[in-house]
Amino acid sequence: MAESGLAAARKRSWTPELLGATTAGSPVYTTNSGSFLRIGKMVTVSGRVIWTSLGGLTGSIQLHGLPYPCKTGTQHRFSMTPSWYDGLAMGADVSMLGGFTQPGTTYIRLWGASNAEEGINLLLKESHITQTGSIYFNCTYMTE
């Protein structure tokens, strides 16, 4: 008898990558691993990326390699929650790390709150992270 519903859900692995939007670069990792669970159209991912070199990445920073594309439409920007991070040189202009799925793609865009009281956010760029660091995170999103 075939399994269905929750019985068919299994935890699987995926490989997150830290890449730049302008130049992807070739970051060097000590660890880049994650797991995911898909139930119907809902996907929950967790991951960790620990890097020792950014490898020339430039532009806004993205976590690539989600196991399924995020559902299309701007209303489908699902939040990424970091559980731990270090090696981020966010400075005075950024006080908090966050991220969101980019609809229709398989990546998460990283952002920082630059003025939480006024709700001003900015996409993180290579100048906001150091050559060595780590991000542990999770995200639940919808796929097609």
Helix/strand layout:
Blueprint: E1 11-14, E2 17-20, E3 28-39, E4 42-53, E5 61-64, E6 79-88, E7 96-101, E8 107-115, E9 120-123, E10 129-142
Antiparallel strand pairs: 1-3, 2-5, 3-4, 4-10, 5-8, 6-7, 6-10, 7-8, 8-9
**Cα-based radius of gyration, to the nearest Å:** 16 Å
Order of helices and strands: EEEEEEEEEE
Continuous helix count: 0
Q: Tell the overall outline.
A: globular
Tell me the strand percentage band: over 45%
Low-confidence stretches: none
TL;DR?
This protein is mainly beta and 144 residues long. It contains no helices and 10 strands.
Describe the structure.
The structure is a single chain. The protein has 144 residues and is mostly beta strands. Helices cover 0% and strands 55% of the residues. Strands 1, 2, 3, 4, 5, 6, 7, 8, 9 and 10 form a 10-stranded antiparallel sheet that branches. The radius of gyration is 16 Å and the shape is globular. The mean pLDDT is 89.
